[in-house]
Design a protein that fits this description.
This protein has about 450 residues and is mostly beta strands. It has 3 domains: about 110 residues, CalX-beta domain (Immunoglobulin-like, Sandwich); about 140 residues, no CATH class; about 120 residues, no CATH class. The chain contains 1 helix and 30 strands. It has a 5-stranded mixed beta sheet with strand order 5-7-3-1-9, with no helix packed on it. A 5-stranded mixed beta sheet has the order 2-10-8-4-6, with no helix packed on it. It starts with a helix and ends with a strand. Pfam families: HmuY. It comes from Leadbetterella byssophila (strain DSM 17132 / JCM 16389 / KACC 11308 / NBRC 106382 / 4M15). InterPro entries: HmuY.
Length: about 450
């Protein structure tokens, strides 16, 4: 009997094994193995191969070289001892944490922190990119792949995502966090929030207290409804989409007399009673801004000093002056934007890539050579643009038989420090990937 039972058991076990569903291994990795910290903070991302249907617990150990936790830097969330404990929520494909230098601490630039992905809850496996070095100074990255987290539960384009190629970092900023931007160079220019469907027009008034709903009868209708997309007169209601600061709705701020403007934006563009009235003047080497809803004479006044660490300073009608909209260094910004409808009229675009042209970045579109074969030797024959829309939306098609990424195009970016990177988009949610979370790849072509 014993000799008969054993073969039956083996057959039974083999049959069960054949019925078992095999799932592919799911790895957790740092998105990159190095990152630089030269600003107020740096975000480190971790990514699963695929989203998991259960909550995942992670432990990351860290070791400072020349820096101590709590004395020179902190993290968000907070660390315990020399470890961070993070959670990837059920259904998510990754998480992140932030490194924040202590205010007032001076760094030589040689300090580093070594992070090690120590443990992760089963069945997730620690991947090959389990170590990351953070340097307390700028680095020059050799390149990486990166997911741009514009999407949240609110919408596919909640965040504008700023990317710094050389530092392997991203910076998230809510697209609704500001209304007007102010240049920090020697000029005095005002821009509209291109990612908030913002439109504006000048009144004939110079005294903001005298502007009322009656003034809307003598200015253009600044609400661009769907029916007005084909109206060429709407072009004058938005800033030039190539970023030319000589073609903004607001005239250059004068040292003498300035007009009051009417401003509308997403959620406040109809009816006319939702519009704002705004007057901008010079204040020393900065700006004085007066603003209020069009029917309200409770005028708010905000002083906006120039900040030499960023290209623009920002104002929110709800919050006053706002900081941390853009990082101190960046190359491109991904998100939502005002752009050409194709009829030379303004339209609102998802998946727009904006160049840091005000900071000195340049870009070129390449289609006559493959991404893999483009090298430093090709730079001399490449023509670069210094416009906001040098990349724009030209890299993708969202409708029709050819919808998806335009495969024969990629881009060369010359960053503000003179480093050259080649950039291509791998997925963005049409054809493959997830809308609002494009995956990009970039590689260093030449150091500056």
């Amino acid at each position: 009997m014993k000799k008969l039972i054993l073969p039956l058991l083996v057959i039974g076990l083999s049959s069960c094994s054949d019925d078992k569903i095999e799932r592919p291994d799911n790895f957790l990795n740092f998105k990159t193995n190095q990152v630089g910290l030269s600003g107020e903070s740096s975000v480190v991302d971790l990514q699963l191969t695929q989203a998991h249907d259960e909550e995942i617990q992670i432990q990351i150990n860290f070791l400072g070289n020349g820096v101590e936790y709590g004395k020179h830097f902190t993290t968000e969330p907070s660390g315990t001892g020399n470890a961070l404990h993070l959670t990837i929520p059920k259904g998510n494909a990754g998480t992140s944490f932030k490194i924040i230098p202590i205010a007032g601490v001076l760094f030589k630039g040689t300090e580093t922190i070594d992070f090690t992905l120590s443990t992760v809850s089963s069945p997730i496996i620690v991947g090959s990119t389990k170590n990351l070095k953070l340097t307390f100074s700028s680095i020059i990255s050799e390149g990486s792949q990166m997911t741009l987290e514009s999407k949240t539960s609110e919408s596919n384009y909640t965040n504008n995502v700023y990317v710094d190629f050389s530092a392997n970092t991203t910076h998230l900023s809510g697209r609704k966090d500001w209304n007007l931007g102010f240049t920090n160079d020697q000029n005095f220019r005002v821009i509209l929030n291109h990612s908030l469907q913002t439109t504006a027009a000048a009144t004939t008034q110079t005294d903001i207290t005298k502007v009322s709903l009656a003034d809307t009868a003598t200015t253009p209708d600044i609400y661009i409804s769907t029916a007005r997309i084909t109206d060429p007169n709407t072009t004058s209601l938005v800033d030039s989409w190539d970023g030319d600061l000589n073609k903004t709705v607001f005239a250059e701020v004068s040292a003498t007399e300035n007009k009051v403007y009417l401003v509308a934006f997403e959620g406040k563009n109809s009816p006319k009673t939702s519009w704002y009235k705004v007057k901008v003047e010079r204040s020393g080497n900065g700006y004085k801004v007066q603003y209020a809803p069009i029917g309200d004479n409770n005028i708010k006044t905000v002083e906006i000093p120039k900040n030499q660490n960023t290209t623009l300073s920002y104002l929110s009608f709800d919050k006053g002056q706002v900081n941390n909209v853009e990082p101190t260094t960046w190359d491109i910004q991904y998100g939502y934007s005002t752009y050409d409808s194709g009829m030379k009229t303004p339209y609102w675009f998802q998946d727009f890539i904006l160049l840091n042209y005000l900071g000195g970045a340049e870009a070129a579109e390449i289609s006559n050579i493959s991404y893999e074969n483009y090298t430093e030797t090709h730079i001399a024959s490449t023509t670069f643009l210094k416009t906001r829309d040098a990349i724009g939306s030209k890299w993708r098609i969202t409708t029709g038989a050819n919808a998806g990424i335009v495969k024969d195009k990629f881009y060369i970016i010359k960053d503000p420090d003179g480093n050259y990177y080649k950039l291509r988009i791998l997925s963005f949610g049409v054809g493959s990937g997830e809308r609002g979370k494009p995956v990009i790849e970039y590689k260093l072509v030449k150091k500056g």
